[in-house]
Amino acid sequence: MTSQVSSPAEQADGALVGEQRSSGDGGGGKEVRRLDRVIIRFAGDSGDGMQLTGDRFTSETATFGNDLSTLPNFPAEIRAPAGTLPGVSSFQLHFADHDILTPGDAPNVLVAMNPAALKANLADVPRGADIIVNTDEFTKRPMAKVGYATSPLEDGSLEAYHVHPVPLTTLTIEALKDFGLSRKEAERSKNMFALGLLSWMYHRPTEGTEKFLRAKFAKKPDIAEANVAAFRAGWNFGETTEDFAVSYEVAPATKAFPTGTYRNISGNLALSYGLVAAGKQADLPVYLGSYPITPASDILHELSKHKNFGVRTFQAEDEIAAIGAALGAAFGGQLAVTTTSGPGVALKSETIGLAVSLELPLLVVAIQRGGPSTGLPTKTEQADLLQAMYGRNGEAPVPIVAPRTPADCFDATLDAARIALTYRTPVFLLSDGYLANGSEPWRIPDIDELPDLRVQFASGPNHQLADGTEVFWPYKRDEQTLARPWAVPGTPGLEHRIGGIEKQDGTGNISYDPANHDFMVRTRQAKVDGIEVPDVEVDDPADATGEGADTLVLGWGSTYGPITAAVRRVRGAGERIAQAHLRHLNPFPRNLGEVLARYDKVIVPEMNLGQLATLLRAKYLVDARSHTQVSGMPFKAEQLAEVFKEAIND
């Protein structure tokens, strides 16, 4: 979340587990220790249900009231080869009794369902951490698949860790022996056994998971009860086994959140709700023209559930058809949206240019992923900024809005809709895979907190000719916003021509006049340049003498969490450093140039090769220092903290 730092623990977001304090005797005579934060990573084969396991643990943690942040990580293949390193799927959850910002740099607990999961994740696990391994999978063939000549459970290579060997498969099959399931069917529930064990270890609620399982398998009640039984067996195993002598408590984060009703939410879900809310606040039907693509498909899936809110979804045959249908809906007077990722943006670029020419509101939701081409479909990246800025033929300026956290996707969507509807322009909403799949607590807003997005459609003539005749000019502009009127097709007297050929100013007639083209190009650019966006806010705490920092860290999009966590660490070490974060990337906030000029050093961390830094250097002639990463994973707070310290002392 974004509350002010108030303790050393908060300043060390994503660092070590907090102070451990004995809180007396737990159930079954076992010790219970209090922690201020925990980072858990579930890892296994892509068919082991790690995403479901992590999601359920997250849901119960949210219900309990902890602050949390998650990082799902899974293969691009629908079913990667079983037991191989490329087939490993993981889910990391960081939860705490105070305000946190990231999924954490390194897990305190790793649950490894097979040798591949152990080998793929061991490098991230710090010495002294707990590792729970499914010993049933550590046989000769699975270990050979990932290059283990000897068992790491026996050769001493794991001596630096607290290893808990648990025969998860055997225990699950034994727990389900009375259900009449085949061995293969019973094995599928081992993730629920693991979930039960971890739920016991960290005192998570259980009622919600049992209710979820019975609902998920409502048509197969035997399977539902088998999963519930496996879940309970895992809990009971933790309660009775001598290998787990301690359980842990992480208190609710009662001081981290303003008063309100909260729920756990992913970025794509928050974005979907933002689109529904934008439609209601604009009093317009929402039309989504989309083609499935990772990691944006969840938005199509979610919006298809909300016909009762006036949402219509269309799964087209390809990306081009999807945006063509959406632009048609915009012409028809609807709040039009298309969702995609980088490869789809390339296919949609001609129609985005057409939307610029037609000057119609259209939301282009791009969930960035690793590229180029197909690239890394399930991994995150920020490398489509310049594509969004310039990836069209001709001078075709498009506003760009970027959310900074999963929950912020809701507000950023409303902001993007405001710009599109007010200024009659396509708008890029530039999220990424980290935000899309990650989750955090979200305060559900009151309706009266949402912006009024209602628009006035053209209803009659708006121009008088020299002879006194009143006519409708489709390109006669609002003096303040430079937006043209939005005329719903079929409105009597408002007939006008549309298309991609250059328009005459005012009349909208086809024009090849050089002076007119120059005027229209500059006018479209001026419209985008004139969009009202808030000034960028700078967090620069002055020292005792009132002097601020010399170094500014400027980020955009999903780097907000790691950057802010790193800044907290640097300040906790006694260094002065300022921070600012951009939501609006086109146009930039009007005070950005003045802000950049105040600092001797400007550092720009990005998950690309320096795209924002390139724009800043070109526009403001500032020596923006890039720190880049294109690994498909988000920054780690400790890594950034070291970079910031080096820059300060340079």
Structure in words:
This protein has 650 residues and is α/β, with parallel strands linked by helices. Strands 12-11-13-14-16-15-23 form a 7-stranded mixed beta sheet, with helices on both faces. It has a 6-stranded mixed beta sheet with strand order 4-5-3-6-7-8, with helices on both faces. A hairpin with a 5-residue loop joins strand 18 and strand 19. Helix 7 (190-201) crosses helix 9 (221-240) and helix 18 (560-572) packs across helix 21. It is globular. The two termini are 31 Å apart. Mean pLDDT is 94; it is low at 1-12 and 14-27.
Descriptive tags:
alpha/beta, 650 residues
In short:
With 650 residues, the chain is an alpha/beta fold. It has 21 helices and 25 strands.
Radius of gyration: 27 Å
Q: Count the beta strands.
A: 25
Structural class: alpha/beta
Strand order of the largest sheet: 12-11-13-14-16-15-23
N- to C-terminal distance: 31 Å
Helical residue percent?
25-40%
Number of H/I helices: 21
Mean pLDDT: 94
* Morphology: globular
Strand content: 15-25%
Query: Largest sheet, if any?
Result: 7 strands, mixed
- Uncertain regions spanning at least 5 consecutive residues: 1-12, 14-27
